[in-house]
Amino acid sequence: MIRINDLSKEYKTKNGLVMGVDRVNLTISEGEVFGIVGYSGAGKSSLLRCINLLERPTSGQIEVNGLDLTKLKGEELRKARLKIGMIFQHFHLISQKTVAENIAFALRAASTPREKMTSRVVELLEMVGLTDKKDVFPAQLSGGQKQRVGIARALANNPSLLLCDEATSALDPNTTLSILRLLKKINRELNITIVLITHEMNVVKEICDRMAVMQDGRVVEEGSVYEIFSNPKAELTKEFISSVLSFEVPQTILDKVTGSIVKVMFKGDVAGEGVISDMVQHFEVRGNFLHGSIEYIQEVPLGLFLMEIQGHPDNIKRAITYMEGRGAQVEVIQNGH
Amino acid sequence: MGIDIQHVIELRPDILKAFGETMYMIGISLTVAIVIGLPLGIVLFITDRGLFLENRIIKGILGFIVNMVRSIPFIILLVALIPLTKLLVDSTIGPAAASVSLSVAATPFFARIVETSLREIDKGVIEAAVAVGATPWMIIKDVLLPESKSSIVQGVTMTIISLVAYSAMAGVVGGGGIGDLAIRFGYYRYDNTIMVVTVVILIVLVQIIQQLGDWTSKALDKR
Ligand SMILES: Nc1ncnc2c1ncn2[C@@H]1O[C@H](COP(=O)(O)OP(=O)(O)OP(=O)(O)O)[C@@H](O)[C@H]1O
Ligand SMILES: [Mg+2]
Which CATH number goes with the domain that contains B180? Predict the structure, then answer.
């Protein structure tokens, strides 16, 4: 478990103090994939780098598995870092060493006996699917392959925690997906807690259990990914959500609409379309879909529909109440005319 | 006034001896520069702000000494170091004596070159090594040196070439060497033949060193 307690990080710059991280409190449970999102400069990297003390916090505590890292220095801190893996946006591999040597470097940091080294390197390469690249130099690898080496290096000493700083931001969508799947697999099979930062909501949607949204060094919203996606509270969070669940309907279409426009959301197992067709049958109204999608967040469906309902205003009202009764969240965007 | 081949043949032993002296001086001072300058350059780098052995006091003191030695003109260094030279090689003239001053001049020069080479390394790679829990020694041996070796080899090349130039001034303390020959014969005695021959030798020498340096540097780089 990771407990971040009242953590602040100030940077002294020419233009005065900059609050990189501003009194952040977070608790991340064991085995969880925790995502931190925010725009550039929000303080995501600063916060993440405070977790393994690459950046020494100005104040506050970082507790990893009951150990307050901010109290450690030198050799003790180095030992603690062996159990915290980290991967980076630009991989940061040693360019003059082969893939195997890069991984062995991490193993040597933990004084792994020589005879165990080779087999462990092979094991790690198998895990990340790069067995055939053992003796190749990083320059000969693709971005995705480099990140796999980064992951193997980070996992070398069986860490309990993996920190990912924009680990997929330099990769194309397909490669991103394959790296995210690998991270998910690592999380499930090795029970490694993952903290990742990103500015892409799709990454969060894909693999995170819980998330926090950061702005100006502060956490403005925190919760389960599903809850935040279905019910974002902070303005910034809504903005981020709309980047993946957007409901842009052309104005010309909206102008033609004569009925009421409602946004209907179905969470979890409520079968959205069934409810809507039942409503149409029961209440003498007509429904037209303007937009709709079902997103799967952590394999739980989240249905979102934008629809026009035509009919007598009373019927529309009753229809809405009916849908709400069956578990939908309905928001009237525009009343009919 | 052309090149007098006969004259060149006549002075061949002097030229060869001078060449040998130049090599001797460069060899010794380069060795000292690497043995002391390399660790010094590494310390200058790793004690810098934000690095894994950040230490303002050490960085400040070493930086000051390095700058001080580097700011003294070589001719003055040659004279100023006479007492030290006497102590070390029990003589104040000859190539061995000149090597003392050359070493003193070359060491901080090379140290700064090493520091600069290390600065070119992507900070992220060093950080990744820190994050993985590597010891400072591991980071030096397996990250800093491998990542900068190709650039450091170029620094060695630069140091050798500077030493070729500096060693010409070693004549002031009777150091000998090719440059000294050029000055003694060409400059003081208006012996154009020797002047041209020695200059050609120096040009060829520098070209070869540069080529070898470039080639080695490239061969070492795995990027
Ligand atoms: N080493 C530093 N020195 C001075 N200011 C810094 C330093 N590192 C970060 N900052 C400042 O702290 C704030 C947060 O930066 P941080 O890098 O944590 O943002 P981020 O959310 O990771 O952004 P990005 O998405 O661009 O990586 C920014 O205002 C930044 O300018
Ligand atoms: Mg960042």
Answer: 1.10.3720.10
Which chain B residues are closer than 8 Å to A106 by Cβ?
132-134
A28: helix, coil or strand? strand
pLDDT digits (tens, 9 = 90+) for B118-177: 999 999 999 999 999 999 999 999 999 999 999 999 999 999 999 988 888 777 677 788
The distance of B76 to chain A (nearest Cα, Å) reads 40
- Candidates A171, A237, A167; CA nearest to A196 is A167
CATH 2.40.50.100 fits A251-334, yes or no: no
Give me the domain span that covers residue B168. 5-220
Into how many domains does chain B fold? 1
Strand order across the A286-297 sheet: A286-297, A300-310, A260-267, A328-334
Partner-chain contact B222 A137, CB within 8 Å: yes
Angstrom distance (rounded) from CA A289 to CA A261: 10
Domain spans, chain A = 2-242, 251-334
d(CA B135, CA B47) in angstroms, rounded, equals: 15
> Cα(A54) to centroid of ligand 1, in Å?
13
Region of poorest pLDDT, from A186-195, A252-261, B17-26 = A252-261
On the question of pLDDT at A21 being above 90, the answer is: yes
- Contact (Cβ atoms closer than 8 angstroms) between residue A107 and residue A159: no
Q: Which ligand approaches the C-alpha of residue A8 most closely? A: 1
Tens-place pLDDT, residues B95-126:
888 888 899 999 999 999 999 999 999 999 99
What ipTM was reported for this prediction?
0.87
Alpha-carbon gap, residue A220 to A44, rounded angstroms: 12
How far apart, in Å, are the Cα atoms of B86 and each of A32, B25, B36, B180? 71, 16, 21, 21
We find that the CATH architecture of domain A2-242 is 3-Layer(aba) Sandwich (3.40)
